[in-house]
Amino acid sequence: xxxxxxxxxxxxxxxxxxxxxxxxxxxxxxxxxxxxxxxxxxxxxxxxxxxxxxxxxxxxxxxxxxxxxxxxxxxxxxxxxxxxxxxxxxxxxxxxxxxxxxxxxxxxxxxxxxxxxxxxxxxxxxxxxxxxxxxxxxxxxxxxxxxxxxxxxxxxxxxxxxxxxxxxxxxxxxxxxxxxxxxxxxxxxxxxxxxxxxxxxxxxxxxxxxxxxxxxxxxxxxxxxxxxxxxxxxxxx
Length: 237
Ligand SMILES: C[S@@+](CC[C@H](N)C(=O)[O-])C[C@H]1O[C@@H](n2cnc3c(N)ncnc32)[C@H](O)[C@@H]1O
What we know:
- This protein is α/β, with parallel strands linked by helices.
- It has two domains: 8-136 and 199-236, Rossmann fold (3-Layer(aba) Sandwich), CATH 3.40.50.150; 139-195, N-terminal domain of TfIIb (Single Sheet).
- The chain has helices at residues 8-15, 19-32, 48-53, 66-75, 111-123, 138-145, 200-208, and strands at residues 38-42, 58-63, 80-83, 95-100, 125-136, 150-154, 157-165, 170-182, 185-196, 213-217, 230-236.
- Strands 3-2-1-4-5-11-10 form a seven-stranded mixed sheet, sandwiched between helices.
- Strand 7 and strand 8 (170-182) form a beta hairpin.
- S-adenosylmethionine is lined by residues 2-4, 43-45, 48-49, 63-65, 68, 85-87, 101-102, 104, 107-108.
């Protein structure tokens, strides 16, 4: 079973409006690759971000999870989606921009596999193409491990997220959704999702092997630091 198989149908409702993140990504692309036309999203999930970016780019999506992709295909019937592992994909074509966002890369638990993703992304980019991805930092995962369970209401459903120390640097996100049925009856859907993070310098060193320019950006406009929650990496071939 791939991750999100039990939570797929709640994903969009639980995440809410994604316009802000998609607009931020579009601003980064416009700044760093203004003439971009084609875009591939690695780990596109339900296509929530692609739906917004499809207004500006000719988009393609890739994800490991068949159930997330089936939601994406319904949402964007005109878009091509591939069920692939981003660690080992070969689509036989190149793109102006490749993105991998919403800490999707943190789901890949071995650093050797992050290096393969960087290599695959570089190989699927046109000359001067842009690879843009974000991470949850180690500081953020540590903060979440020490935080109380997060409770979130969406519609009439309840979501509980409890992040615990899964050992060897892994953060285990235990996600429980109580789906409202009727009266005070709920159905429970539960999944554990694992994430890991690596030091920014280690990531930058690995990227240098594939990309000529690498910028690290904290979206809160603070200076990127070990304390940042989310960091974007903007990489040029
Ligand atoms: C947090 S969701 C993000 C989805 C989408 N990028 C968004 O912003 O809504 C993470 C996605 O990563 C996908 N994923 C995890 N590991 C993957 C891998 N090795 N290759 C491709 N997709 C993967 C999961 O199936 C899931 O859809």
